[in-house]
Each structure stands twice: as structure tokens, then as C-alpha cells.
Amino acid sequence: MHAQNTILLIIILTISCDEDLKIRIGLPEYICDKDGGVRDVSNELTTIRLLGKDALNVSYNFDVNFRTIGKKCYNDQRCTLMKWKAVRELDHYLKNYPVEKLRSGLIQINNTMFDPGVKYIINVQLISQGKVVEEKQLSLDYVDDAVRAKVKKPMASLLLLAPDTSYAFARYVVNAEVNVCSNISAYYFTWEVTNSQNVTQFPTRSAELAIPANTFQASQTYTIKCTVVGVTNNTPIAESQQTVTVLSKGLLLRLPIKRLTTRRGNDVQIKAYVKDLDNIDGEIRATWSCIETTTDEECQYDSDTSELDVYSGFDQPGTYKISLEISKSEFTESDSCIVVVMDNAAIVEIEDIEFPTNPTTGITIEATIYELRTFCTLQWTAPEEEGYESVDLSTVPGNVNEVINVTMKEDLFLYELEEFSNDTIDKKHDLVLPPPSGNWEGLKGDRKYLFRLTVTCPIMDDPSDNFNTSVSVTSTTDIVVETNSPPVTQSLDVAPLQGVAFITTFTFKTQRALDKDGDGPTLYKFGFTLNQRDIVLWTLGEVTNCEATLPYSDNGVPTFLESCDSFGTCGRLLGPTIQTKLPDNIDKEVILQRFIAKIDAKDYDRGFTEAFIILSSYKSDEDDKIKEVVARKVNEEVEKYVNSDVNDVVLSNVNELMRNINEFNSDLQLPEDVINNVVRLRNKFSDEPIKYTQRQLLSFRGKRASSLTVHDVQNYLEISELIITTSNDLSKVNLEKEYLRKQLRNHMEKLCTNMKKTQVSLELKTVIFSVEKLKKNSLNNFISVPFEANSWQVFGRVKLGSVVKDSKDKCVGKAVFRDYLDKSGITYFVDVLNAEEVNEAAEIVIFLPKNKSMDGTPKCLVYYNNGWRSECKKMQNIANYVKCTCKHLGYYYLEYTQTTNSPAVTSTTLHTHPTTPLPEKILINASESSSQLTSDKTSKGNYDTVSYVVIAVSVIGIIILAVTVRKIFHDDDENEESETFDFPKYAQLHNEEFLNDAHI
Asked: What is the pLDDT of residues 120-141, one digit of tens each?
């Protein structure tokens, strides 16, 4: 977003005082108006920028001279003297500019100090350690109407805002500030990056170029060229260049698990965090070594990647030192860890830990422990060891250091799965270290922490025996977490604090953020919050100021600043809340031109942001003309692409357009006909691979190929959901549901191929899905479908068994759909991804949750080969689930069939009816029949008494029996979730002494 009344810069003085000192000074080439002289600029500001990493480490001396433009003051001595007086005032102003204001890298001059028709000649001296190290002469023209009328070519100022240095692993952002002095309403930007080997043109037409991490290579210099082009005739208006030198950082190697205890014969996988921070050509050479520390014997395990897989585990108990050395070019790094192999040890798996971590956003160490038994205990601790920062886990919210006693009872599903046995269960036990809050100060930045997961389990040699809790084995896993402190933001000043929305220019200023050496350059994100959405105005590398207009909000506009280092670790600072008012007597069409100009320039990110800001500012306006203009413009843009040819630039633009429609449609509320066209566009381009040209800066390097991300998948699927949730055409809704369902598996396959974490997931309105890497232990354990803590609070479970031979490089795709295919309610999906062969003879065990609102008998259905099949066998009811076995993977649904009860009264059914007098004949027969049951008819009174006692005792006995059965088997479905009792007691029901316990 650009300020509409800001005077920008074009002339750049680049000063390289020595090999390490880099300073740029940006001066305006013209003082003019973007609207071609429509507005009076005399009350605005002209800005001089001090740029470069050393710009604030030197002092400046300014000397101002002038000459008139054209015939201004021609043969007029008084006019000339008045100009000299004004120049001396400007000279004095610059020479005495406050040093504290220079720290923002910004010099602002009120335009009342300049006179139209004058060329200002400014000499700038840079002084370091008392010596003038460089001097340069620049000029500034205050262009008036007379000059503008004589100049035919476009007059424009273009300044590129970006740091002079960067790292290959860091994201690099360049921003273009433009000031068009001619009457050109719409323009766009083209970007080109060159080095000694390649020239790359980027598809974006935005004023911001974001070059992804790992695009540059270290020890090279790149030239970034930006051209401003008019939309009407595609004529270049202005051009500017920026050079960036990429510094070297070497290799990064971390083994986050420092100590691991595992079971003999169990698979062991050790993952290293390896990164080539310089992104240079060639492969990283990895050399693993293994030594048994007691005998110094070498272990024959090896790998040429960052992962060491020890299939079938270690043969013998012992303590093993695993070392990894990586090398590339002249760089070498090494690290090591300890693996302790024991009998009966627990199997622990730790998710990948990124380096470095940001403590301000919280840290989670994800741990899964396999084959746990009742009486096992789990606990996280933070041992105090030299070289590690100490932390008291008892102060962390959530009781993260408490001892967890493992019982089957803790999962009602597993508890009721089978009659008691000594089977094992798997359990996730994550260590969650939240961001600072309340009395919890959080982890400190730039520190190393050691966390230990201790698992203690009893030893059981004979499965038929009870557990012996006096004999146990303890396993420990030590994890190292290294934190990275975000840059310390000094302040955020915004001026003025009040103004007119869309008109007033607000200046955002800060001082250089504090950070340790090697973490720069710093990216500054200036923005505001509107309707709970963060809007970033500028993302600037090493530039500590910007100018922009702001929208209107009833309660003011809160501002913020984020400062991010080269690792992407960011700190956030809230600024003042700015009070704005809507402009008086202004045509909204003028404001909407900001949105239209950005869309015409294919700058969709900023264009849709403008639309959102305008609609939010005028949300109380009953006039729908703004929405109509936005919808019409978006529809025009969509139809252009529907009828266009396919190429890389078009693909990139279409992807950006659809992403913005998804993101902002809840606010824009585009009508159904526009959404229908968006679907046409999606259908045309969805099968085309989108290429990110900026990732192919060095085109001969194959690893630049882009990969599908969860965010990309969300963009595609949300287009479908727009139709499903907003369309009134039922046939279109059903077609779109079918399209989404069929595309989802394709997206899952691509995510599986490029997954770094064990599991990725996405929650939408009509579908929730998850892709999870398969592991050896996964096939014979229960997998949640899609995952337990989802927003719908519904999930099934599946055991894949022998459906595939092994789990290597495979994933399981899982999803739940709402009202899909021809079924109402929840449909479940399970499939193995990237599996070339599937064992069709295998049995898949699926557990589907019961629908308590449905009556009847549940039956499992599976959908494959375009139809529902009733081949699944219902086995039994397990807690709140129905257990079924199936022969096919696919879609599963629990269907309920109604049963007609026989009118006969059975012994298990009690019916209560109104009392009906029996006929006299029947009463007599009944009396006679009863008299035959006793030989002593005179004892009828005693008989009645005994009968009542027997009936009463029978009823009491039935009640006791029912309570006991219910207590043991939890047969009451309505109260299953609330029933609890101690699992060890349940395990000892065969013990007569225990049965006499009053607790049952």
C-alpha cells in the first residue's frame, strides 16, 4: 500500500567508504504531485532517506545551493535575493537537523521551505571519525505547472528499498517507492535479477518483490532491476537498480536428541537437522560412525543422508556413541549423541525439532511412547547440567512436570476394546512450553535448554502373571532445544495521531532493532489491525520508516511493528491507536480507484487489501455500490484468465488471484455468479503445475522445484467450499462436493511426498483431513481418523494390519466429510498413500463412533469402485464405537437400519398397561390352577406371604446383579463417558478376595 500524498525519492548516492562501510542516500529528483498537479503539495513533506547498514554510524554535513528553472527570476534581482534567503533557511535546517531524529534514517522537510521553479543543488559530506570520507552533489527540482507543460516524457521517481547484504538462507524483500509526476493513473512493476551466470524475470507485478529463502548463493553479488510500466500502453516510465551481496554462513548441524534409551531389536532412527546456509552447488557429504563405548568396538551402521536408520535395532545391550560429520566445500561440522540399548525399555519417538526455535511463540516437543503397559510412568524434567540454561518446569502452566501413571482406563475405547489382557498401548506425551504469560516468564532467547523424558515400566516375563511393580526398567531421552531471541524492537512512533482516512499521510518510525551479530538484516513489518485482521503496510529490509494512509474504524486504528531476523524469528510491538474520520464530500469512486489501479496492475495482494480496507471503513453505509464495483472488477479479471492462454506468468497470477479471493471473500461477499466463474478458472488451471520462477534463479539446479504446501491445498479446496457453502443450486453443490472429494486424495499424495513433519492437517467447513507418515509401529496400532483434537470433536480409529508390507516412504491419508456422496452426517476416509501394492487379502479394522441420535442397528458400509458396498462385517460394540472389519480402503459410513419388534412380550422386556378386569371364568380357572400347586389349601395366607417375600428378594437380586454387571462391563451406553474405576482392580476380578471388596 502506498501513501497517496508522499514525495518519494529517485536519486541514490551509493558510498562505499571502505570494504565494510556501505551507505546510500536517497534524495527526491522531483517535488511533484502523483495526480498530475491536482493537489496542492506545499503543505506536504519531502523525505531524504539514509540507507545501508552503516548509514547511522557516520555523521552528515549538508550544503545547499540553487538555480532557477527556465525564466524564473529572469533579470529580477529581488526575486533572486528571496530565493537565496529561502535556500539559506533550508541550509541551516539541514545542518542543524536533530541527531536523535536521524536515528530513524529519515530526514523530513516541509515543502513550504521549497519554491516552485527552482532546482536545489545539495552537497552531502559523510564524516567518519572526524574525517570526510565521501562527498557527492545531488539535485532536486520543484516542478511547477509551467515546467510540467513543456516536458513530454513521463516524469517519475523510483527508489528501491532493500538491504545491501543478505544471507542465502534468508528471505529477501525489495520494495519500490514510486512518484509519478505525469498524469498516469495506473502502472505496474517488472522485476529482473541477474548475477554472473543468469538473468531471471519474476512474474510478480507488485511493488514488493519477495525472494524466497535459498534462492541466492553465498559469495555472489546480484543486481535487482525494477521498471515502472504504464498499464495503458505498456511504456516504461522509470527504472532503478539495487545490488545485494550475499554473505557466507557455512553449514549448520544439530542432533537435537542427545541421549536415547531404546529396546534391543527395535528399529532406531536418528534424525539430524542439517542445512547448507550458503546454498552453494553440490551435495552435502554425510559420514556416520558408531562405537560401543564400553568395548570401543565399531558398529556397522551407515547412511549417506541426514538420517540414520538402524533397522531391527541393535543386537546387544550397551551404550553406543553415534557421530555424524558433514562437509561441503571448505566447511565441516560434526555432532554426536548417545544411544543406550536395554531389554524391556520403552520405545520413544521424538518429532523433528527446528533450529532455532522462537521462545516468544511457545515451543512444543512432540513425543510418542510405544508399547506402554499399565503401571508405567512418564515424566518430563529439566536436569541442571553445565552448558545448559536451567528452568523450573513446576512454574510452567499446565503441570508439565507431573508424573503420569499409565493405565488402559485412560482411554475408554482401549479400556473396553477386549476383556482384560496385558496388551500394550501407545501414548503421546508432549512437553508444551507456552509463550510468556502471567507468572511464567517463558524461555529466554539465545539459550540452550536440556529436557528429559523419563519412562519407567514394570518388568513382566510371563504375560499370564501379574505385574511386578517392584522390578522396573527406566528409559531416558534427552532433548536439546536452542532458542533464538527475536530482534528487540526499540519503539514505534506514528504521527500524526489523528487524521482523515485515505487522505492524511501518517509516518511510521522506529529505531534500529537490537540483535546479535549474524542475525541480520532485520525485516521491519509496519502495519495496523482492522476487524481483527492484521494488515502489513510495508515489509522493509533495514529501513526503519515508512509513510502510508490509514482507513477508518469506529474505535480507532491500532498500529503494530514486527521485527524479524534472518532466521524468520519475529518480535512484535504495539504502537499507538490512530483516530481517523471519514473524508467529507469525497466521491467514493475516487477512493475505489486505489483498488482498481492495483487490480489493473495485477498486484492482487495489495488490490484485495485495498478492497477490504475500503469496505471495512464504509461498512455502516447502506449503499452497496462499493461491493458492486469490487465484484464487477474481480469478475472482469477472472474472465480474462478464463479466456487466456496458459503460461508461467499467467499461472502465477491466477494462483495469486484465487488465493486472495479465498482469503477475503468472507469480507467481500462476492455474488454467486462471480464464484461460478472462479470455479471455471480453477477447473481450467487446477491440473497445471504452478512454477515459481523466483525459485529457479539458478535454473540448472534441480532442487529449486517447488512443492505443494498445506497452504496451497487450502487455496484449492476453499474454492470448492465457496460453492458448497454459498450456492443455492443443489446440483452445483453436489458436483463441487464430488470434485473436492476426488481431488483431495491427489493433494494428499503430493503432501506425503514433500512432508517434513510426521503429520500435517487442515480443517475446513465441510472436510477435515490429515496426512500422517506411516511407521513400523503404525500398522499394528490404532490410528485416529482424521485426528483426535479436531474442531468437529468426532474421529474414528483404524488398524491397517498387513495392508502394506512396510511403512517406508508411505503415509496414511485420513479425512472426515460432512454430508458427502449420498449420505447425510459424517463419512470417514482412510487410504495408504504412495503404496504401489496393497495386500487385498488383509483385513482392515475400522472403529466408527456411534450416532447417539439415531435409532436402529448400525451397519458398516465401504465406498469403492463408485459404489457403496456392505461387505464390511460388524463385529461388536466397543464403548462409543462400532467395530467393523473390511477388505477395502476407502470411504466408510455407519448406516442405521430400523428393526420391527415382535408384539410378543419377552423375559427381557417389561411392558406396563392399564389394569383390565379379567372375565369371571378366567379368574376361577386361575384360582383353581393355583390351588393345585399346594397340598395344603388352608395355608393360602402363608403362601401369599411367602410369595411376596420371594418376589421382593428376586427383584432385589436382579437389581444387585444388574448393578454388578453394569459396573464390570459398562453396558449402559448413555453413561459410558462418565463411568470410571481403577483399571488394576478390573484386572484382578478373578481374585476372590477382591470380589469381596466393598468397592464393587
From this structure: 888 888 888 888 887 878 777 7
